[in-house]
Design a protein that fits this description.
alpha/beta; Rossmann fold; 12 strands; 5-stranded parallel sheet; globular
């Protein structure tokens, strides 16, 4: 076993195996295990409305799930800050959605309060946690556990990518249940999800080497603006959060199309952009978003902005417009986030080292770590 200076670096490197362990809980080859389907039937009901409550990184996985569940399954999904949800009182009492709580530890106080509120309102509840015996997993009607293993560093890395994988499996189940996707398509998606772990494992060394050099190049930046469209907006938010909590460097995540509606005033030599510019060539909507991102990259180049782009391997169009380009192997639109977030995690780690930060224990932050995690 290699030696790692920090738990965060070790946990980022563990992500391919964490994904494999997690998928093995739910899939038998390319099919959801029958017992998993039976379990999820307890959460199913005629309502096509889903409400997700979570905090921090878990909320960002919820934002990705919002797009995936809406696009693949036709569900109506809202994502709430867990800290706000239970304080809204009667304002949401007329709604009766299915409720999904997401938490790494299963003990996050704000998310537990939201879950308790949902149970009081007799909503069907589902918890996704990294601890099968956690309070949240025990109290929800249905629990989908991760097998990420103990995550000691405060910045969430392997638990986040495993959350995305389980949420993707949930979407495949819902698509099968409501007939929005046929069996062949679902099995193809599951097969691609399995293959993603090997793809990530092969790409990790290059990502680590490149992001270490980028951190040295951009170490003096005051603020970063992270930009993404569609499901990738959630990853822009997560990348910005990682940078803030790990390195104390300010960052914000925005929908790419909103840059010119105010934030562009900040862009300068000291405020670089991180732009998610991957694409699924088989999906017309993804291609449309990509073309708009290319146009924005061109505008930013003419403006003189410094841009770190995350793009498909071999994408010369993005590479020619960006100051620096991190390549990610092509994948389907709704699986790309699992891969593209990892170089952003690594960049935040190396930026923390450049700033002299104890990356495993950022100031003013704490985390519930349970030794009996799966």
């Amino acid at each position: 076993m290699p030696e790692f200076t920090h738990a965060m670096l070790r946990e980022m490197q563990e992500q391919p195996e964490a994904l494999r362990r997690t998928l093995a809980l739910y899939l038998d080859g390319s099919r959801l295990k029958p017992e998993i389907q039976s379990m999820l039937q307890r959460w199913a009901e005629p309502s096509d409305e889903v409400l997700i409550a979570a905090s921090g990184s878990s909320r960002h996985s919820g934002l990705a799930a919002e797009i995936i569940l809406e696009d693949l399954c036709g569900l109506a999904v809202d994502v709430e800050y867990a800290s706000e949800y239970s304080l809204r009182g009667a304002q949401h009492s007329h709604r009766h959605p299915r409720f999904l709580a997401i938490s790494q530890s299963g003990e996050t106080s704000d998310t537990l309060a939201a879950l308790n509120d949902a149970r009081t309102r007799q909503l069907k509840t589902l918890a996704i946690t990294n601890v099968a015996a956690s309070t949240m997993a025990t109290e929800a009607d249905v629990s989908m556990s991760l097998a990420a293993g103990v995550e000691r560093a405060i910045p969430a890395t392997k638990s986040f990518t495993c959350q995305l994988a389980v949420l993707y499996l949930l979407a495949l189940y819902e698509a099968a249940r409501n007939g929005s996707m046929n069996t062949t398509a679902i099995e193809q998606h599951a097969t691609e999800l399995w293959a993603l772990a090997d793809s990530i494992e092969a790409q990790l060394p290059a990502w680590q080497n490149q992001t270490e050099q980028l951190a040295k190049k951009y170490r003096s930046a005051n603020t970063f603006l992270y930009l993404g469209r569609g499901v990738h907006y959630a990853i822009a938010r997560e990348g910005a959060l990682k940078l803030k909590e790990a390195s104390y460097v300010h960052a914000e995540g925005y929908p790419a199309g909103e840059l010119k509606h105010g934030p562009n005033a900040l862009v300068s030599d000291r405020v670089p952009l991180v732009m998610l510019a991957t694409v699924d060539r088989a999906l017309p909507d993804s291609v449309m978003r990509y073309e708009k991102t290319l146009a924005l990259l061109g505008d930013m180049r003419r403006q003189g902005a410094h841009v770190i782009a995350v793009a498909n391997t071999g994408d010369t169009a993005v590479a020619e417009l960006a100051s620096d380009c991190i390549f990610v192997q092509p994948a389907s639109e709704y699986l790309l986030p699992i891969a593209e977030v990892i170089p952003l995690q690594l960049f935040s780690y190396f930026m923390a080292l450049e700033q002299g930060v104890d990356v495993d224990r950022p100031r003013n932050l704490s985390k519930a770590v349970v030794e009996t995690e799966a």
